[in-house]
Design goal:
By secondary structure, the protein is α+β, with helices and mostly antiparallel strands. Helices cover 34% and strands 11% of the residues. It has four helices and three strands, in the order ββαβααα. The protein has helices at residues 53-66, 84-91, 101-116, 125-140, and strands at residues 20-24, 43-51, 80-83. It starts with 19 loop residues before the first strand and ends in a 21-residue tail after the last helix. Zinc ion (ZN) binds at residues 10, 12-13, 15, 51-52, 54-55.
Length: 161
């Protein structure tokens, strides 16, 4: 069973030396190149994408200036993740597919927090880029509707007057 790579190259150009990395929800694999054969429902925790310095500049510009994500150009063969089978042996977990919605909600909430604090000098640009990519991906996956259905109730976010 393919268990994913632990030390992956740049997911855009396959260069071995990478500069930084980001974490995205497993379902985002479906937006990537070569993502189809990967059982994203069995992925435990987040998927890690690494980028070389040059590609990171591109990814950063896409996110910050164009509010979009690079996932369709990322090669799923070059990302790292843990498949559930590995953990199952250790934890003797049940056979149900991993419920990804809790993780997705956590990542979404964390990304929103990061963007709310984007002007804070302690907020790192990498975190802002990661947050934009996570939210764009969730939106493209239909998990982040304008109706706020995936959000927790938040008084300030309610559209009512
Ligand atoms: Zn690269």
């Amino acid at each position: 069973m393919y268990a994913g790579l632990t030390r992956t190259p740049c997911c855009l150009c396959a260069r071995e030396e990478t500069y930084t990395r980001i974490a995205v929800p497993p379902r985002a694999i479906t937006l990537m190149k070569n993502g189809d054969p990967i059982a994203w429902r069995d992925v435990v925790d987040t998927v890690t994408l690494r980028f070389c310095r040059e590609d990171w500049e591109l990814v950063r510009d896409l996110a910050i200036e164009m509010d979009t994500h690079p996932l369709s150009r990322c090669n799923a063969a070059y990302v790292s993740f843990d498949l559930r089978e590995d953990h199952e042996a250790l934890l003797s977990a049940t056979k149900e597919a991993t419920d990804q919605t809790a993780l997705e909600a956590t990542l979404e909430a964390r990304a929103e927090e990061t963007l709310d604090a984007a002007e804070d000098p302690h907020t790192e640009e990498r975190d802002v880029v990661e947050a934009i990519i996570v939210l764009c991906a969730l939106e493209e996956l239909g998990l982040r509707g304008r109706d706020g259905s995936t959000r927790e109730a938040s008084a300030s976010e309610e559209p009512r007057p």
